[in-house]
Amino acid sequence: MSHFLFLRCMSSPLAAVVLCAGKGTRMKSEKAKVLHPLLGRPLCAYPLKRALELGASPLVPVVGHQAAEVEQAIRAQLPSATLRFALQQEQRGTADAVRSAEGALKEFSGRVLILYGDVPLLRRETLEALVAAYEAGKGPLALVSTVLEDPTGYGRVIREGGKEGGQIARIVEHKDCTPEQRAVRECNAGIYLVESSFLWRALAEIRPQNAQGEYYLTDLVELAARLGPVASVEADATEMAGVNDRVELAARARVMQQRINERHMRAGVTLLDPATTFIEDDVTLGPDTEVGPLVTLAAGTVVGRDVTIGQGCVLTASTVADGTSIKPYSVFEEARVGERCIIGPFSRLRPGTELAEEVHLGNFVETKKARIGKGSKASHLTYLGDAKIGAGVNVGAGTITCNYDGVNKHVTELGDGVFIGSDTQLVAPVSVGDGAYVGAGTTVTKNVPPGSLAVSRVPQVNKEGWVARKKAKQG
Ligand code: UD1
Ligand code: CA
Description:
This protein is an alpha/beta fold. It has 10 helices and 37 strands. It folds into 2 domains: 14-246, Alpha-Beta Complex (Spore Coat Polysaccharide Biosynthesis Protein SpsA, Chain A); 268-454, Hexapeptide repeat proteins (UDP N-Acetylglucosamine Acyltransferase, domain 1, 3 Solenoid). Helices cover 20% and strands 28% of the residues. The protein binds uridine-diphosphate-N-acetylglucosamine and calcium ion (CA).
């Protein structure tokens, strides 16, 4: 290695290799470890997103166990990233895993960030510090280390002369440590920034001569130290914590939940019970919004200011405009809700729901592909599917759009100012013109002209004394 010169220029291109090949035996799962969800996203989405935020391109996930499923999940999580997948056939150690990315980075020359797919809590700031430390140094490699109370199991950062401030000489895995090396508490986080031409040449030199018979990526450090000082940044112990079993998965999820909740609270959102509030990482909440206990706000949800979200609500990929109040136990999925609406309790807004301002939907109201105009109301026990509803409409209790004929879906249109009496069935395709009334209990099968009344009920007949006569007959 000593004959090898490496060249680097400032701010050269950045790529990332993220190790996602492991099975995760201790998860006791049919599913690959990196696919287990943490706050709604697969574990491996977190380090990949951090690399993307840093500007790394391409991203090279190294897959192995359940490669196809892992690849599909990563593509779904990062639809706009430049991804090149590398396959590690057999798990022969971390150096072998990174080496399997060489083909995917054949054309690439620059800095390679190396991350683990099962370490979700790593912060962007730490990676930025790593980049800065690398740029400030002269060597081909920089790494992240952390000081642990109990370093058992981790690779130790061994410095020249065994001193704290000394240059990094190498990393020694726990199983390969001498008793003195075991006493070192500075540990290797497994996160590196490496110059690409050095990386591929050095990886080719690594041999599995160690206690575990594995190709150790950590051997890179000693090779790099021969060429120049190895820069390091120190991270918090929580950041480098991985996930090996489901207890650790829950513990990491709790930290992520706290981080996200604190970010929103500091930005002016009230969380009545942060411990039971689950907000995924790409949710936006406006100031003065209040979120009750046991609420889940899932990916892609955007909530304006002054919104109240009551206990037990679950919102997924939905938009809620300013001043709206969502009462407890309402469920939204891909819905758009305008300003100052009042929704719930127990409303269910399904995909394609679009509400204008000041719409009121009450308990047990379900909407799907329904556009509802300003100030319209459906307060109780109603299904509105494939519906276009104007402004100022009143939909009575128990109204149902019969949108499905067993083969196709059909549209119901209600004009502005329409009044629908309780227990109405609207058999689509059908329309009710502006200002028309529909009497309670009507089954609407024909279009109703504007301004008219539609009733389809049989006129009521009262048979006096009927009950007594029936009982007499029965004897
Ligand atoms: C590794 C480091 C150790 C460091 C620790 C921090 C090495 C040799 N040791 O140890 O210095 O303190 O991380 O957590 O690198 N993987 C593959 N393919 C493989 C082997 C591993 O994809 O062939 C993946 C694993 O799924 C895992 C990650 O790489 O996500 C780390 O591998 P693991 O074997 O757990 O390394 P450690 O023993 O933890
Ligand atoms: Ca590990």
